[in-house]
């Protein structure tokens, strides 16, 4: 296969979308088209990406018609549709028939499977059935609270968990559309007053889904783990990659997204993810978030994202190009020997020196310095085959801007990560 008959089409202008297009370019020489609602810096002055700005892209008809226009402009090429945003994943799945008619490859699970796994309650139910550990959770049903009296009902919510706690949406797609003061991707809750404040805002906003309140698993960000998998149309898990998170992002809109990952194999997590994907008959990329519980030595699983994840380049850098499993399955339709990303590599979007400041373990810090000296540190935006002078300056500015972000939102490392 060559780039003559295929094109990568991304939706969303973040680092993860660029990393996906880069993987296709590395493997097949394929350039990409990326749709975003505004021009984004990760795509700026790229030689491998055409960034098409589409205002109002989260409107369904705008989204679909824009993709159809891309397919028309590239008639004769098979467009492979890629996105890292939950609300776009849902749109693709709901309107798959129309996108398929336009010629798109849509490597995503069925709507039934999406509904099951993208709900964090549904995720927990599957895990319980399979014996996969999850955190203790209280479900705050916001529509039920609204019907029960609104803010007055919030104070009556029973909570048999000890603070500090973690609060997060059950449905990420619904979360995208709600707005309230202090909204974050994940809420760290130190006491009941903080919890009631968030729930009150959600009640006032008429949020249509549940909000999950979970026990906090002790340990800093280096206890967090990431797993990326791909299960093909025949039901075979053809890609598995795991890594130790070293640092997460801390701006409100990106809180909890890994900013640095050390590729490490965790066989127990790979086995658990395989059982989960098989049990739900999942198809496509999936990204699991989990954490090592120092109290038990076991991995505790938080959620599965029905997409590859913003931090997906750690997989490609670790020796398993993510484009290959997708193309072999969805374009060429042939079996492939399962791939494992096992090469010891450090993935980071933040400056190396800044990362070291937040890694408190001396042995781990020494290990990272060794990888740096061996040239095994990768930034998805720093690509030798997309490195004109202006592009290099833009990427360096993006990278160095993390110093300002951490100074504002997470100035000093802590034992809890917040």
UniProtKB/TrEMBL annotation:
The keyword Nucleotide-binding applies. PROSITE patterns: ATP_GRASP. Keywords: ATP-binding, Ligase, Nucleotide-binding. It holds the Pfam family CPSase_L_D2. Signal peptide: none annotated. GO terms for molecular function: ligase activity. This is Carboxylate--amine ligase. The lineage of its organism: Bacteria, Bacillati, Actinomycetota, Actinomycetes, Micrococcales. Residues 124-331 form the ATP-grasp domain. It comes from Myceligenerans pegani.
């Amino acid at each position: 296969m060559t780039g003559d008959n295929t094109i990568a089409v991304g939706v969303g202008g973040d680092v993860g979308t660029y990393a996906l297009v880069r993987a296709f370019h590395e493997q097949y020489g394929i350039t990409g088209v990326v749709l975003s609602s505004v021009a984004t810096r990760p795509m700026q002055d790229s030689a491998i990406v055409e960034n098409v700005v589409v205002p109002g892209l989260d409107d369904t008809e705008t989204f679909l018609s824009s993709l159809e226009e891309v397919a028309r402009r590239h008639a004769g090429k098979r467009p492979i549709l890629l996105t890292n945003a939950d609300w776009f994943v849902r749109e693709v799945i709901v309107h798959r028939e129309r996108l398929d008619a336009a010629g798109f490859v849509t490597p995503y699970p069925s709507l039934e499977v999406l509904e099951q796994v993208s709900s964090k309650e549904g995720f927990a139910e599957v895990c319980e059935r399979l014996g996969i550990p999850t955190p203790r959770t209280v479900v705050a049903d916001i529509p039920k609270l609204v019907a029960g009296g609104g803010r007055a009902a919030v104070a009556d919510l029973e909570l048999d968990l000890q603070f500090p706690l973690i609060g997060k949406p059950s449905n990420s797609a619904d979360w995208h559309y709600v707005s309230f003061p202090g909204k974050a991707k994940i809420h760290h809750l130190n006491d009941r007053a903080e919890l009631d404040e968030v729930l009150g805002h959600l009640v006032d906003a008429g949020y249509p889904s549940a909000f999950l309140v979970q026990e906090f698993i002790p340990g800093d960000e280096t206890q967090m783990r990431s797993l990326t998998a791909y299960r093909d149309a025949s039901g075979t898990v053809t890609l598995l990659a795991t890594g130790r998170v070293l640092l997460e992002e801390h701006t409100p809109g990106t809180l909890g997204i890994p900013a640095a990952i050390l590729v490490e194999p965790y066989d127990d997590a790979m086995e658990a993810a395989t059982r989960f994907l098989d049990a739900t008959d999942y198809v496509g990329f999936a990204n699991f978030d989990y954490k090592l519980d120092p109290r038990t030595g076991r991995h505790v699983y938080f959620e599965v994202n029905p997409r590859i994840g913003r931090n997906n380049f750690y997989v490609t850098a670790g020796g398993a190009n993510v484009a290959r499993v997708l193309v072999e399955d969805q374009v060429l339709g042939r079996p492939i020997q399962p791939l494992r990303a096992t090469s010891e590599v450090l993935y980071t979007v933040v400056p190396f020196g800044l990362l070291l400041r937040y890694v408190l373990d001396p042995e781990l810090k020494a290990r990272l310095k060794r990888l740096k000296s061996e040239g095994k540190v990768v930034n998805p935006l720093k690509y030798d085959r997309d490195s004109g002078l202006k592009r290099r300056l833009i990427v360096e500015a993006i990278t160095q801007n993390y110093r300002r972000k951490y100074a504002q939102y997470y100035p000093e490392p802590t034992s809890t990560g917040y």
